Amino acid sequence: MNLPNAYNGWSNYATWRVSLEVCDDIVSSLIGETQMFRDTDEIAAYLENAVEEVLTNYGELTGGLALDYARSFVSDVNFLEIAEHAADDLITTDEAA
């Protein structure tokens, strides 16, 4: 991917940073638990919700300037791109899943 705003092979800094610092651990846990998904959209939605949980410290924080800034930063994250990166390990081809 060679986009004008590319950062370390990702579409932008926010996507790279959140993938590296938050989503990598989440994806590793999902692989360890053999959690499987139907498609990249489902993975992206799961990761976006999981990152929101991390931002709010699992519901402990409900507002404030720091949370607003964090959410603003995360709004630039391309969760579909992160999901596509993890798809080989998380998408099942088993019809029963």
Write a structural description.
The chain has helices at residues 13-32, 40-55, 65-74, 79-90. With 97 residues, it is mainly alpha-helical. It has one domain (13-90).
Return the string of H and E elements.
HHHH
Shape field: globular
Helical residues, percent: 55-70%
**Helix count, DSSP H or I runs of 4 or more residues:** 4
How many strands appear in the DSSP assignment?
0
The major beta sheet can be summarized as:
none
Distance between the termini: 31 Å
Given the helix and strand composition, which structural class is it? mainly alpha
Low-confidence stretches: none
Assembly type of the shown chains? single chain
Name the average pLDDT: 91
Q: What number of domains?
A: 1
Radius of gyration: 14 Å
Q: Indicate the proportion of strand residues.
A: under 5%
In summary, what is this structure?
The protein is mostly helical. The protein is 60% helix and 0% strand.
